[in-house]
Write a structure and sequence with these properties.
Blueprint (H helix, E strand, L loop, with lengths): L30 H11 L3 H60 L3 H14 L4 H28 L3 H16 L7 H23 L5 H11 L5 H27 L3 H14 L4 H20 L5 H13 L5 E10 L5 E9 L5 E11 L5 E8 L4 E2 L4 E8 L8 E11 L1
Antiparallel strand pairs: 1-2, 2-6, 3-4, 3-5, 3-7
Helix pairs in contact: 1-2, 2-3, 2-4, 3-4, 4-5, 4-6, 5-6, 6-7, 6-8, 7-8, 8-9, 8-10, 9-10
Length: about 400
């Protein structure tokens, strides 16, 4: 059966249409229908229609309003949730960026705090977890390098080298901007250890060839420490060379003395003291050969006498200073003046070194910076003696020799 008004299908026992409220006349024959009809006959014909219509409308409104309200509520909830999640995402990204920036500035502890906060907000964000793991590893390497540096300061070189090797092996498997400063720092410490090792090795050496071998190793190291030790090795090569050449020259072994100087110049290229001593050897060789000539024997004897008489009168020592540097080497500086009536050449200053208690340590010699010193002129001299290690050491000039022009 269908409603005569809205054409909706009606159940057999329904007295009114649930959609439009129209009374179903065909069903008024049952008990409920009779009551409705009686009510209508009693003078209330509209009451039945109004009551049934209200119930029907309430049912329709509720059936429409509930889904709409539910949909609106869900959309609002999802919108709030979306913007909340977006805010968290933005905060996580900002924490990640700040943490990585702090790490690149070697502020590892602050970086870890930032990245930890990001992980707490987004535990499943693998990019943040990866950054956090990398920074923690860099922090570990940095702490190990700091410990290795302390071990070097405490002269525990074996332990420092072991720890440094461990760090370098760990860094070898890493790459990226985060680890680059640590690699550089580790390499620098490795160079420092190598330089210290070479310095300890050269202390007992007194052979030019062996010292030259260490110098070749130092030439491969480009660092301030390497340059400092390289300078020490060169100074020692010069010292050993001059001592050997001087001994041979005293025995008139001119060729051997010259060969010794050439050996030193092989490593201390164009060194002023060695080139000056080479000239001295050549000059003394010529003098010796001339002395062999009988025709000028008397003239040479007179020259020798004159040299002996003027040995302490031809020059005046104006000043002399010395210091023992941080590497234990004694550095000597001074000035002299030609107070004679003749130009001088090949001026050599002989000196002795005494320790803090005044005890004799060693002696050496050096030459004037300039080969010639004319009458009335002043000249400077300097020298370095390797391995004194006594800040209270003193220097005394024993003798000064020269040639008259």
């Amino acid at each position: 059966m269908k409603c005569s008004q809205c054409r909706r299908k009606i159940q057999g026992n329904e007295l009114y249409c649930p959609n439009c409220g129209t009374i179903i006349l065909n069903n008024l024959s049952n008990e409920s229908g009779k009551a409705i009809l009686a009510n209508s006959v009693a003078g209330n014909p509209e009451k039945i229609h109004l009551e049934t219509t209200k119930k029907s409308k309430k049912s329709v409104v509720f059936s429409i309003t509930l889904p709409v309200f539910t949909a609106v509520f869900m959309v609002a909830t999802l919108t709030v949730f979306y913007f909340h999640e977006q805010t968290i995402n933005a905060e996580v990204i900002e924490l990640k960026q700040k943490g990585e920036q702090l790490a690149l500035a070697a502020n590892y502890e602050a970086a870890i705090i930032k990245l930890d906060s990001a992980v707490e907000l987004r535990p499943g964000y693998k990019a943040v977890q990866k950054s956090l793991s990398a920074v923690r590893l860099a922090h570990k390497f940095n702490n190990q390098l700091a410990s290795a540096g302390e071990l070097i300061k405490n002269q525990d070189y074996a332990a420092s080298e072991k720890l440094l090797t461990e760090v370098q092996e760990g860094l070898s498997s890493q790459s990226g901007e985060l680890y680059a400063p640590l690699v550089e720092k580790a390499d620098k410490q490795a160079v420092t250890l190598k330089v210290i090792s070479i310095k300890k090795e050269i202390e007992p050496l007194n052979n030019v060839a062996e010292l030259g071998g260490k110098l070749s190793v130092l030439n491969t190291i480009s660092s301030s420490e390497g340059e400092a030790v390289k300078k020490q090795v060169i100074n020692k090569i010069v010292e050993v060379t001059l001592k050997d050449a001087s001994t041979k020259l005293e025995d008139n072994q001119f060729s051997e003395a010259a060969a010794s100087v050439e050996s030193g110049l092989k490593y201390a290229t164009n060194h002023e003291k060695l080139t000056a001593y080479k000239t001295k050897i050549e000059q003394e060789q010529l003098a010796f050969e001339e002395a062999e000539r009988t025709r000028i024997e008397k003239a040479l004897e007179e020259a020798a006498k004159e040299d002996l008489l003027n040995r302490t009168a031809a020059v005046d020592v104006i000043s002399i200073e010395w210091e023992v540097d941080e590497y234990g080497d004694l550095n000597l500086y001074g000035d002299i003046e030609n107070v004679s009536t003749s130009n001088l050449s090949s001026i050599t200053i002989y000196y002795s070194i005494y320790d803090s208690f005044g005890s004799y340590v060693t002696d050496s010699f050096t030459t004037l910076d300039t080969y010639y010193l004319n009458v009335g002129e002043k000249g400077s001299f300097s020298d370095s003696y390797y391995g004194i290690y006594d800040e209270g050491a003193t220097v005394e000039i024993d003798n000064i020799t020269w040639y008259l022009e």
